[in-house]
């Protein structure tokens, strides 16, 4: 009933304010009901209702607007008719509050399109429905924006011109790379213009002596890995999404991944960046120096800022040499305490050759074996509760093997391990990695998944998992895996469908629990859209205020990736 | 009955080889077809006989043999020879070993992935005057008192050929089985198993290399395609 009165209010309102399409849209968007009163099915029917309503409106406006106040209005009316609603479509049932569309952002018109065509030439301007559909949807299929325009610049100059223009027009933009974000950070929320840097994929230079690689932001991580492989080097990061994610995105999100334990975070490996600011200014900080203490090291602001302070266009990164001796052991433990003890043992006994330490629990293992083909359990003889993957990388096969065997022998004798396999060739090693890297994919195939990425004190990690199992009971499958070596838990709750009741049992409990342990509510996935209002769980109010102040300096109109990272409440204050 | 399995240590099959074939700092492992042969031997053993693992090659082969022992072989014999050996030489060595050990069945991989010769098994069978079942994709062995027979399905160009042979030399093909992993407890146990070392003199075999490698070249790089305006 609430919907009907809102809609009829809208009809009356629209017939009065024909010329003010902008305000119509705002009004229209603002009658979206608050999250608490709606559950999933009714929201869907509401959206359908509005779509029907909008269709009805088309005719009303058209009839009234005959001979109206100028070509301009008719023209934008025509666009409105074809665009339909500029609301944010959501496939995810959770109606956790998404901020309303910012009234100060303009909407694209034909003048904008012709300007972009001039700057980029025809092929850089994408308005094709199908391609936009892909670009508007995130990898998890949880979020979907309604952008009508995607731009594909090829040079930094083009990016600068685009941003300068968008800033002057107050058009919101979303920087996009491989679109593999797990927190909705790489897709538009409403109709933001998508700036996809995928066409900027050249490798600019590589120094074989220092291992410093300079390339453009649109280079796909796996391609960089293949290139470096030929030169005898490797990338300092490795993650499951490597086939699609781009280095610009990796840097903008400070991606972690499987090798952080050995090679550190991107804050350490990135030597320089070229970034374009919101007003088109190109910041050339593309140094290739290992040490440079001259002034404030601004690149660190952009590493991890998720595209909200500037668009990364070029990268200079230090790459480690490729070492020939890689060993991988897939081990089984009885309980979580043994996993922790093995971590300590591994650090001391394997020392400098340890390059990865991952864990997965039995639910994760079962799910992967069930959903992905071509994989088999390396330890089929019995069921184990926890699996640990340990990788060593070194320069001498014999030395590493000896260390690894001594470590494993002792671990078995002292009962820390119940069983294990050491990969005998590269094929076996990649199938072990496939098991660990395949868990996110398996979860997606299984149904709906609520994904949490938390940093916690290692001894507390599994306590949270067990508490979640108790809270949810048989309603959901709680799956845990992660970078145990970094204290990073990937907590995933798998259910057949999205269900607000289940979500209510998970959030905010998970965040509050993490906050109490002074943990991070996002160890490596970032904030994006999913956690934009949750910063306070892991940051003090003063810290967030300073973040907002910096955002105001670098992007005063707030056009870069709006609605994400910082809570809207804080931004509107400053 | 004893089963003898020959294994060869080669460059790991998943390694990307660059020009020439450098073996200095490259990952080496057991030839995949030899792994399949070993797996088959272990399965036959698990329905009741001993099996042994033999390899021929330079000193590092000990690793490969240890892996074989960890997977479940009972004994290993390492024939040391520092140079490159070609199939005929290997076949002569195996003839000497078979004469000494007297196994009932000999299993090999159909070919090694470094030289792709696909000759050793056939030559051994020739020297021993034993029957041969090559490219086996299914093996079943019957060992009754009067009736020792192996039924072998072979992968041939026209499809599958089934042969019934009196305990032969069998070379294995891909579809035969999926090799097991060597688990840690077994790797630990394998350390204490003995690898017997033999030299060519011990076996009274003389190697005379009748093949000389003249040249090894990479295939020409693939040329970019040409887009034609019309055909």
From TrEMBL, chain B:
GO terms for cellular component: mitochondrial matrix. It holds the Pfam family ETF. It is found in: Mitochondrion matrix. One of its GO terms (biological process) is amino acid catabolic process. Belongs to the ETF beta-subunit/FixA family. This is Electron transfer flavoprotein subunit beta. Keywords: Electron transport, Mitochondrion, Transport.
């Amino acid at each position: 009933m609430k919907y009907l009165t809102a809609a009829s209010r809208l009809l009356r309102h629209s017939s009065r304010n024909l010329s003010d399409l902008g305000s119509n849209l705002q009004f229209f968007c603002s009658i979206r009901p608050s999250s608490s009163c709606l559950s999933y099915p009714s929201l869907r029917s509401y959206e359908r209702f509005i779509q029907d309503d909008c269709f009805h409106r088309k005719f009303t406006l058209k009839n009234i607007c005959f001979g109206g106040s100028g070509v301009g209005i008719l023209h934008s009316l025509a666009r409105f008719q074809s665009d339909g609603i500029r609301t944010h479509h959501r496939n995810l049932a959770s109606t956790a509050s998404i901020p309303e569309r910012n009234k100060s952002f303009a909407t694209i018109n034909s003048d904008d399109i012709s300007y972009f065509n001039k700057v980029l030439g025809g092929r850089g301007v994408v308005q094709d429905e199908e391609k936009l559909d892909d670009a508007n949807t995130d990898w998890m299929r949880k979020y979907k924006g309604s952008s009508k325009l995607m731009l594909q610049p090829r040079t930094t100059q083009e990016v600068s011109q685009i941003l300068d223009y968008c800033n002057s027009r107050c058009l919101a933009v979303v920087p996009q790379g491989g679109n593999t974000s797990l927190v909705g950070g790489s897709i538009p929320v409403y109709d933001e213009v998508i700036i996809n840097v995928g066409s900027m994929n050249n490798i600019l230079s590589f120094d074989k002596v220092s291992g410093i690689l300079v390339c453009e932001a649109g280079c796909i991580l796996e391609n960089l890995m293949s290139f470096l492989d030929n030169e005898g080097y490797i990338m300092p990061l490795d993650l499951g999404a490597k086939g699609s994610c781009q280095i610009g995105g990796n840097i903008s999100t400070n991606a972690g991944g499987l090798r952080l334990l050995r090679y550190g975070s991107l804050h350490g490996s990135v030597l320089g960046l070229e970034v374009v600011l919101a007003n088109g200014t190109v910041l050339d900080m593309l140094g290739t120096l290992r040490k440079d203490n001259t002034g404030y090291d601004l690149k660190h602001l952009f590493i991890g800022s998720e595209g909200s302070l500037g668009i990364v266009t070029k990268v200079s990164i230090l790459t480690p040499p490729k070492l020939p001796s890689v060993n991988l052991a897939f081990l089984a433990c009885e309980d979580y305490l043994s996993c922790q003890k093995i971590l300590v043992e591994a650090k001391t006994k394997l020392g400098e050759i340890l390059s990865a330490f991952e864990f997965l629990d039995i639910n994760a293992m079962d799910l992967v074996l069930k959903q992905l083909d071509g994989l088999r359990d390396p330890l089929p003889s019995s069921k184990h509760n926890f699996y640990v993957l340990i990788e060593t990388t070194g320069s001498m096969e014999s030395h590493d093997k000896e260390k690894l065997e001594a470590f494993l022998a002792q671990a078995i004798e002292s009962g820390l391990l119940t069983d294990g396999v050491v990969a005998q060739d590269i094929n076996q090693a990649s199938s072990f990695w496939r098991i660990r890297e395949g868990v996110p994919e398996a979860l997606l195939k299984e149904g709906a998944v609520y994904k949490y990425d938390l940093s916690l004190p290692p001894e507390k990690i599994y306590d949270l998992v067990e508490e979640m199992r108790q809270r949810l009971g048989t309603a959901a499958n709680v799956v845990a895996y992660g970078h145990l070596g970094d204290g990073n838990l990937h907590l995933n709750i798998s259910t057949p469908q999205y269900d607000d009741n289940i979500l209510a049992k998970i959030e905010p409990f998970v965040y509050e629990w993490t906050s109490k342990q002074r943990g991070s509510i996002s160890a490596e996935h970032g904030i994006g859209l999913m956690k934009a209002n949750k910063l306070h769980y892991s940051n003090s109010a003063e810290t967030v205020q300073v973040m907002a102040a910096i955002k105001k300096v670098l992007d005063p109109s707030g056009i870069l990736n709006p609605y994400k990272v910082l809570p809207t409440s804080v931004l509107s204050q400053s | 009955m004893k089963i003898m399995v020959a294994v060869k240590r080669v460059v790991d099959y998943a390694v990307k080889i660059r020009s020439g074939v450098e073996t200095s700092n490259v990952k080496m492992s057991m030839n995949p077809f030899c792994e399949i042969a070993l797996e088959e031997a272990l399965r036959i053993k698990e329905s009741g006989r001993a099996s042994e693992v033999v390899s021929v090659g330079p000193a590092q082969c000990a690793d490969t043999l240890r892996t074989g022992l960890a997977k479940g072989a009972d004994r290993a014999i390492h024939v040391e020879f520092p140079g490159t050996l070609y199939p005929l030489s290997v076949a002569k060595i195996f003839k000497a070993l078979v004469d000494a050990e007297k196994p009932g069945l000999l299993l090999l991989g159909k070919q090694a992935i470094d030289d792709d010769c696909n000759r050793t098994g056939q030559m051994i069978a020739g020297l021993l005057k034993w029957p041969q079942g090559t490219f086996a994709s299914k093996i079943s062995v019957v060992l009754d008192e009067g009736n020792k027979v192996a039924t072998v399905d072979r992968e041939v160009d026209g499809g599958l050929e089934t042969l019934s042979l009196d305990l032969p030399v069998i070379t294995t093909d891909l579809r035969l089985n999926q090799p097991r992993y060597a688990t840690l407890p077994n790797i630990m146990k394998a350390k204490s198993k003995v690898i017997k070392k033999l030299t060519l003199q011990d076996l009274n075999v003389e190697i005379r290399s009748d093949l000389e490698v003249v040249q090894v070249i990479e295939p020409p790089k693939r040329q970019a395609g040409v887009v034609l305006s019309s055909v």
